[in-house]
Amino acid sequence: MEPLDTSALPAPRSMAAVNTSDTKLTLPFFDRNSGLNVALVAFSLILAVVWSPLGLLLWPGFLLLEDVLYFGFGRSLLDTEVAVQRGYQFAHVFLDRVSGHGRDLGFNLYDGELTKTGPRAQADKWAFMFAQLGLKPGDRLIDIGCGYGDWLDYARSRGVDVVGVNISLEQADYAKTHRGLEIVARNWKDISGDARLREQLFGQFDAVTFMDTIEHYVPSTHRKSLEKQGEIYRQMFELAAHLLRPQARPGRVFISCLHQNDKTWGLQANVSAYFLTRYHSGFYPMGPDGLSRWSRDWFNEKARWDKTEDYRLTGVLDRDHFQAPKIRWTLRKLGMIPLLLLCDPHHLHKWIEIKADTWMRLFGERRWDEHYDPQFRQKVSYVILWWLLLERAAPVGAAAEKRSGN
Predict the structure, then answer these.
(1) H/E element holding 211?
(2) How much is the pTM?
(3) Residue 226: its H or E element
(4) 107 neighbors 212 (Cβ within 8 angstroms)
């Protein structure tokens, strides 16, 4: 990628330095997953009292059964969409400064210049995206999986009208309360089936972005079924096509998504992937064409960039970043642990993921090396971060006719 000239761009905005761990929780505590978990914990304790201490094994036995069903047979007794929300909620409760401090829930763009400050590297990322999308003042942008709204806030500062969609209710509330952004607090998978949302959103935007969230769209129950993976990805791309205005110029989509590479995964990589799945829930598309293959009915791939080293080095240079964070303990955080243990069947897995450094392990050898070396990383990393720029190939109706063979 050519070095980015940022001399004519606005300076990074001064955002409110609010720690997200101090803001309120929004996701209801009792849902299908938490209800089942609370019932099992209670029943385990009752069995231990009235029968035998062996009754305490009921709860971990259930978690083991869930693992067998989930990873062995592609089935789950839990709601995988709620599991995604719980992953975001964990970060919201226990991590600080994930928004408005020169970082967000993605990564920064260093492109080899590791002396950049966090805010500068973050603004460079946004400026690059802004230019590649061809955005101009007065255009409309929608960001699916918008996090706390950092990218949308930047685009708005350059005269673009913005809307975000977010499954995380805590993040959506933060983006609305602290940034005044328009946020649709829903799962994107619900948009096409909701007449009100279709009327509100379809045909309204000049560009669509999916930044570092697609990894959570397909549950690991689908990892052995290319057909099931493709069903979700095609739904995603069809939604993007519907969101674009018919006259949008040039009608582009920008994606940041971790992929599995073709490297053979050993025991250590698979163990890391297990705990990452139980923290974040999801599945990485496979191979260099793992995601864009599903876009071709609606979009042409215009460009792609390997930004794996930028992702890794964001965590290396900034230990407030979520990849391997240092937790700053408060009484509030300590008090949340027993509550989340009851509400989240995989709360303990999240702590193991952090303490075992499982995220960084997927980058392979020398994962903490403070050098920018994309060629080496391609050889050793189990994951690759692709930036994809797509451009509309055909109207939605034409794409539907093509698929039906008419």
Answers:
(1) strand 207-211
(2) 0.92
(3) helix 226-243
(4) yes
For 296, counting Cβ atoms within 10 Å of its Cβ (0-12 exposed, 13-18 middle, 19+ buried), the class is middle
DSSP structural state of residue 121:
H
DSSP of 43-89: HHHHHHHHT-GGGGGHHHHHHHHHHIIIIIHS--SS-HHHHHHHHHH
Distances from the Cα of 143 to the Cαs of 49, 189, 243, 317, 359, in angstroms? 51, 14, 11, 27, 25
Angle at 228 between CA 287 and CA 185, to 5 degrees: 95
Tens of pLDDT, residue by residue over 19-41, are 666 666 665 667 899 999 999 99
How many CB atoms neighbour CB 189 within 10 A? Answer: 14
Give dist(CA 398, CA 298) in Å, integer. Answer: 9
| Residues 353 and 359 sit within 8 Å (Cβ to Cβ) | yes
The C-alpha atoms of residue 90 and residue 279 are separated, in whole angstroms, by 9
Q: What is the pLDDT of residue 263?
A: 84
The residues near 18 (Cβ < 8 Å, ≥ 6 apart) are 99, 100, 174, 178
In this structure, of 69-78, 116-125, 142-151, 279-288, the range with the lowest mean pLDDT score is 279-288
